Amino acid sequence: MLGYGHGGSSFNDGGGAAPSITNTGTFRADAGSNTYNIQVPFNNEGTVEATSGTLQFTGGGSGKSGTWTAASGAAMTFTGGSYVLAGDTWSGDGAFSVAGAGVKSQYHMI
After folding, report:
1. CB pairs under 8 A, 24+ apart, for 8-11?
2. Which of 13, 46, 70, 102 is 20 to 30 Å from 79 at the Cα level?
3. pLDDT tens by residue, 7-58
4. Per-domain residue ranges for the chain?
5. CB-based burial of residue 17 (10 Å sphere; 0-12 exposed, 13-18 middle, 19+ buried)?
């Protein structure tokens, strides 16, 4: 599990080889009242959890039978890049939104 603690921050492309994140376990973001911005391609084959604050994706990516969960009071947003999500599951009482990103999804709502 990779946990991303309180406070606003970013994963971004600082130059060099093209970075990306491939999650095959649990990626948990606890942003408090802040926003975490993932600015590199994010490929989810595991579980992504937004437990508080906003988890924002701007770098594109994919999903392959992954799980995306936003807890009550948390938000998960896709605001840049292109995403192809195949067989992914969406759950939780939080908010999900797409604005400025291209998302193609075959999904299951719980």
Report:
1. 8/34, 8/35, 8/36, 8/37, 8/53, 9/34, 9/36, 9/37, 10/36, 10/37, 10/38, 10/39, 11/37, 11/38, 11/39, 11/40
2. 46
3. 545 555 556 678 899 999 999 999 899 999 999 999 999 999 999 999 999 9
4. 2-9+19-109
5. exposed
